[in-house]
């Protein structure tokens, strides 16, 4: 089984003792106290992720450093700062590597679900994989399209996607070569791949994305039954402030939303203050709210410029996942109506 942080025990009439029984195969572990809450972000943190322990139970963790070596060094250093002697790596990404406790998960398939010249929908091997029969659903993540033409294929999905994965959802990426990444063409590719996932037997299919990937996610709502849910984070398709395409951006968003015909789909949209790709936040918020008018979709969750999160990359901030990750999962799974 993959490693997850140990749960804090529920206190009984007396607080738990700090004394621990000795164990020959693993170190003692001291999660409770004021530092316990520092464990909570680990399951949703981006790779590389490293958790370090010392034999006396001190610990430290790190994630998303420039490379794995830097992440390991940071985790071990933090463990030592908290009084650990002989700190070493206990878990690396999805695998437990502590001597005597080694556990490696089964790898995700490497073959694309569907693809063509310059694009593919492919399982992401950085996430837990269940397969169509066992997974709660498939989450397809679509990256953005960089204004400078950088190639975003293989980029890691935003951290909230890991909340879905930890709950049993398979994660796939919708990768596109910037040389062929036209918005309308990409939407067509995505529709075809979603049909394949349906045919494979996934109970539910969700499409999420950021920027142009979020725009594509909204586009596929024009075909009923393709997606059970959409998570559109800072949707955009007309470049940053000053782009010659800005005058038509709001009207083209209106057209995309007007074509939505997915009355069973639950749709979450997140926008942010200071988004240099958003030409008119108020007008766009009004358009998003109209999605429920027909109803064109089953439910809408609009996270409209939440406090403390800003910029086009606001959805990638750890605070976004900490505040809204579980809420998005519960909303898409119809377990709660919003994020109040």
Short description:
The protein has seven helices and twelve strands. It has 340 residues and is α/β, with parallel strands linked by helices.
- In terms of quaternary structure, what is this? single chain
N-to-C series of helices and strands: EEHEEEEEHEHEHEHEHEH
How far apart are the first and last residues' alpha carbons, in Å? 34 Å
Q: Treating each run of at least 4 consecutive H or I residues as one helix, how many helices?
A: 7
Q: How big a fraction of the residues is strand?
A: 15-25%
Q: Tally of extended strands?
A: 12
**Low-confidence sequence ranges:** 1-27
- Structural class per helix/strand content? alpha/beta
Q: Tell me about the largest β-sheet.
A: 8 strands, mixed
Q: Roughly how much helix do the residues carry, as a percent range?
A: 10-25%
Q: Tell me, rounded to a whole number, the average pLDDT.
A: 87
Please characterize this protein's 3D structure.
This protein is an alpha/beta fold and 340 residues long. It contains seven helices and twelve strands. It has an eight-stranded mixed beta sheet, sandwiched between helices. A four-stranded antiparallel beta sheet has the order 2-1-3-4, covered by helices on one side. Strand 10, helix 5 and strand 11 form a beta-alpha-beta unit. Helix 3 crosses helix 4. The longest helix is centred in the middle third of the chain and has 18 residues.
């Amino acid at each position: 089984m993959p490693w997850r942080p140990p749960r804090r025990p529920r206190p009984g009439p007396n607080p738990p003792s700090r004394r621990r029984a000795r164990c020959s195969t693993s170190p003692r572990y001291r999660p409770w106290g004021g530092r316990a809450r520092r464990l909570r972000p680990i399951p949703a943190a981006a790779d590389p992720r490293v958790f370090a322990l010392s034999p006396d139970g001190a610990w430290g963790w790190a994630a998303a450093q420039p490379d794995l070596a830097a992440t390991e060094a940071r985790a071990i250093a933090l463990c030592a700062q908290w009084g650990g002697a002989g700190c070493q790596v206990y878990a690396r990404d999805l695998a437990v590597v502590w001597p005597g406790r080694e556990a490696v998960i089964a790898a995700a398939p490497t073959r694309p679900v569907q693809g063509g010249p310059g694009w593919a929908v492919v399982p992401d091997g950085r996430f837990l994989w269940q397969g169509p029969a066992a997974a709660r659903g498939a989450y397809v993540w679509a990256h953005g399209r960089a204004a400078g033409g950088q190639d975003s294929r293989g980029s890691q999905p935003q951290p909230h996607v890991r909340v879905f994965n930890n709950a049993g959802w398979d994660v796939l990426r919708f990768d596109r070569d910037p040389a062929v990444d036209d918005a309308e063409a990409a939407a067509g590719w995505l529709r075809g791949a979603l049909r394949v996932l349906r045919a494979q037997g996934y109970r539910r299919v969700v499409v999420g994305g950021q920027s142009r990937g979020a725009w594509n996610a909204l586009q596929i709502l024009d075909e009923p039954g393709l997606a059970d849910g959409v998570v559109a984070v800072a949707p955009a398709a007309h470049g940053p402030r000053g782009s010659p395409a800005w005058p038509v951006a709001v009207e083209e968003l209106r057209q995309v939303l007007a074509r939505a015909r997915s009355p069973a789909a639950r749709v979450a949209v997140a926008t942010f203050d200071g988004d240099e790709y958003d030409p008119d936040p108020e007008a766009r918020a009004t358009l998003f709210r109209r999605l429920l008018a027909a109803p064109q979709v089953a439910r809408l969750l609009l996270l409209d410029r939440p406090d403390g999160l800003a910029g086009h990359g606001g959805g990638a901030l750890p605070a976004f996942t900490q505040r809204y990750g579980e809420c998005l999962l519960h909303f898409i799974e119809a377990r709660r109506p919003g994020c109040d």
